Amino acid sequence: MKIAYLHRLTFDESEKRFQDEAGVLGIELVPVKYRKLKLVGDKIMFGEMDMKSFDGWYFRSVGSELEWSKLLQLYAKKHNVSVVDEYLMTDGPLRRFKSVMSWQLADAGVLYPKSAYVESFKDLEKELGSWELPAIVKLSAGGRHGMGTFWVRELADLEKLKHVLEGRKEKARLANKKVPVFRGFLVQEYIKNDGDFRVMTVGYKCLGGFKRQVKEEKLILNKSLGRSLGVDLPDDVKETAEAAARVLGVEVAGTDLVRSTENGKVYIIEVNEAPQFKVFEKRTKINAARKILEYCVEKFGKTQKLKKSK
């Protein structure tokens, strides 16, 4: 089986892990970077390969590649190419915006913190004036490793947040990089908890997970007060993670959840597509890369059999 492994960048050792496991499974896994693609007439080509010649496509990451992801979506639908993840065939990469995710989860009845979405920093200041603090503020476009998530304990923290965002702009200028425009803020109710669960699901089924300690009480919520631990996940945590992944159409998901220390209920905090799995494998001893590829093989194999039977 020949699978296209679509990605933008190589983080950690994910690509190597997938290539190693593909070798064990006897899969030809071809890394395809979006910017190496070309549209020629009505064909999308990667070098001399027509993208429809693959048995299936695994979108490891999409990020800001909005144009290519849409073109590939149209091409996959035209030629009945099977893909992972399913959300790319409906919502597309717009699903990665936290505002969109919050709407879909709340609308489906999955437990999610009370939320509000505002466009500008000025609107954010006005909105938080009517909230009970502390509250969580997230950049709707996201941020890696918690760098886009902030804990606002009092309104004075907004000045600190503004300073942080201006600092990031200045850092980009000095590095001659594209200066980010910080707009689109998701305000979220703070759920008191004793740490969060990270659950990995593949094909909407729970593989396993671990628990991270409670976050440091500081503006940027990117560090926990101690080492994460492998745990036996409670049934309601697994079921909630599976339900959220299915609602969003994210076949390979890393979902963050917390249990409220006030009412005991489990809340979805975030569903991440194409999650990193180095820590997951270390804590759970589960071979995530192999499980993902096995799922792709099973799904793409069914599609190929269906095509041959027609």
Task: Please give a structural write-up.
This protein has 310 residues and is of the alpha+beta class. The protein folds into 3 domains: 2-84, 3-Layer(aba) Sandwich (Rossmann fold), CATH 3.40.50.20; 114-190, Dna Ligase, domain 1 (2-Layer Sandwich), CATH 3.30.1490.20; 192-215 and 223-294, D-amino Acid Aminotransferase, Chain A, domain 1, CATH 3.30.470.20. Helices cover 34% and strands 25% of the residues. The chain has 8 helices and 16 strands. It has helices spanning 14-25, 66-79, 98-107, 121-128, 157-174, 235-248, 278-284, 288-309, and strands at residues 2-7, 28-33, 37-40, 43-46, 49-50, 56-59, 83-84, 115-118, 135-139, 149-152, 185-189, 196-202, 205-212, 229-230, 252-259, 266-273. The strands form 4 sheets. It has a 5-stranded antiparallel sheet, sandwiched between helices. It has a 4-stranded parallel sheet with strand order 2-1-6-7, covered by helices on one side. A 4-stranded antiparallel sheet has the order 8-11-9-10, with helices on both faces. A hairpin with a 6-residue loop joins strand 15 (252-259) and strand 16. Helix 1 (14-25) crosses helix 8. The longest helix has 22 residues, at 288-309. The two termini are 20 Å apart. The relative contact order is 0.15. The mean pLDDT is 90.
